[in-house]
């Protein structure tokens, strides 16, 4: 009986460790913004060419962060680290665009970086559709934050 109890505990621990829960996310939007998503306090940093950076702190509820954790496990966990995803138009016509890097700092001390490269559209290869679901959720969450409604726009342009 003790062996069964020990085995069930070990199984539970190993299953929980495979989730790779997120400690925090750092989103780098080209050279203009850095977003640090962490429970309970998060930050949105806007960079400027000619003046000091502007930092806005905003709250993230436990429920919101748990949703991010669940979506990470469901949609992002399976991607290898250092993945590049190209957002393009239907005709595969490439235009100059920017990029966003998602740096996931995981509680098991591993890190994962996924880069979204904007090349002129919203289409993505089928294998990366799950990440765009995660990205859409995070962007909608940020857009709902009242503290970020009047955030300043960066004057740094990417060439």
Describe the structure.
It is globular, with a radius of gyration of 18 Å. Helices cover 30% and strands 29% of the residues. It has 159 residues and is of the alpha+beta class. It has one domain: Mago nashi protein (2-Layer Sandwich). It has three helices and seven strands. 11% of the residues are buried. It has a seven-stranded mixed β-sheet, covered by helices on one side. It comes from Chishuiella changwenlii. This is Lipoprotein.
On the 0 to 100 scale, the average pLDDT is 83
> Can you write the helix and strand succession as a string?
HEEEEHEEEH
Residue windows where pLDDT falls under 50 for at least 5 positions: 4-8, 10-18
Number of DSSP E strands: 7
The major sheet is characterized as: 7 strands, mixed
- Overall structural domain count: 1
CATH architecture annotation name = 2-Layer Sandwich
Q: What's the arrangement of strands in the largest beta sheet?
A: 4-3-2-1-6-7-5
Structural class designation: alpha+beta
Helix content: 25-40%
Q: End-to-end span in angstroms?
A: 66 Å
The number of helical elements comes to 3
Protein name: Lipoprotein
């Amino acid at each position: 009986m003790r062996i069964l109890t020990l085995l069930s505990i070990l199984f539970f621990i190993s299953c929980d460790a495979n989730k790779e829960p997120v400690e925090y996310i750092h989103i780098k939007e080209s050279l203009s913004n850095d977003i640090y998503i962490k429970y309970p306090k998060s930050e949105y940093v806007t960079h400027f060419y000619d003046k000091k950076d502007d930092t806005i702190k905003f709250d993230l509820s436990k429920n919101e962060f748990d949703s991010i954790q669940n979506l990470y496990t469901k949609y992002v966990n399976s991607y290898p680290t250092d993945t590049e995803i190209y957002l393009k138009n239907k005709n595969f016509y490439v235009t100059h665009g920017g990029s966003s890097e998602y740096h996931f700092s995981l509680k098991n001390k591993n890190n994962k970086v996924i880069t979204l490269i904007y090349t002129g559209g919203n289409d993505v290869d089928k294998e990366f559709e799950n990440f765009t679901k995660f990205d859409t959720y995070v962007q909608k969450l940020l857009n709902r934050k009242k503290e970020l409604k009047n955030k300043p726009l960066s004057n740094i342009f990417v060439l």
